Structure formats: structure tokens, C-alpha cells
Sequence to fold (171 residues):
Amino acid sequence: MELRKEILAASYKEQILSVAGWIGSDPKRFARLMQLFLEDEYRVVQRSAWIISLVAEKHPELMTPHLPEMVARMETGGLPSAVKRNVLRVLQDMTLPPDLHGPVMNACFQYLEDPREMIAIKAFAMTILSNLAVAYPDIKNEIRILLEDLLEHDPSPGIRSRAQKVMKSIG
Fold:
């Protein structure tokens, strides 16, 4: 399969699911997908991010060797919202190696503090920070302050629901 061509042609969910199915649990195919995600044009990157999230849901072990690259991608300025959303969706369910905790934490705090950031991105960032608070209990107060501010200034149902869950989990 010519992966880039298929990704560009995949404009419907069924096509995206087909590409994700073709990748399956194959580490070499997944590595090709990651290369496109990290190096290609906007549309390819955006669709690759969606496929990555679908594959990682079924085969999270494929993500492990690529986590440093994914985290580095998060630190890139001007990243499309779809990419951030899908990267965070994957990371919220991953056990991150300790050397990535700092960069992931920083990115998630930045996303929560940005009033222009999309609700889904903030929701995933909340979950990731909640997960990291287990290892770093000293960030719980900062998370609480940010969530209280979010609830005051952006009381959308998505923010409210996720913030309440995170507040319960961090105590």
C-alpha cells in the first residue's frame, strides 16, 4: 500500500478505518505512518494523527518507541488543533516514561492556560495532568487553580464534566 496516497484519499471515516486496519499491529507500517505524521504536509499530518489515535487504541505498544517524537511534536508552535487533539487523546491512555513527564506536563499546562484552545484539547490535557499528578502530587494545587479558573471563564459542558472528574481524582 502506498500509505501517503491512501492517507490523502482517505476523506471518510470508513477509509481512515481501512488504513488503520491495514497498519494493524505491524510496527514497520506504524513507523511509516509516524514518519508521515512527523514530516509531511498539513493534510497528511492531520489525517495521520487520526489514524495514529485509532491504531494506538488497539495496539498501544506500537506507540512506545515513538513517544519522544510525539512529545517533541507537541512542542512545535502552530500545530494544527486536530494534531494536538489526537496526540493528547493517545497520551492520556499511555504510561509515559519519566523523561517525558516534564515536556508533556508543560505542554498540557500551556494548553489549559490558552483561552483560545479547543475544549477537547483542554479536556485531554486535564486527564494527562491528572495522571501525572499521581507521580507529582505537588502539581495538584496548580491543576486545581487552573480548573477553577476554567470553570469560571469557560463553563462549557465539556470543560465542566472533565474538570469535575479531574478534581475528584486529584482530591
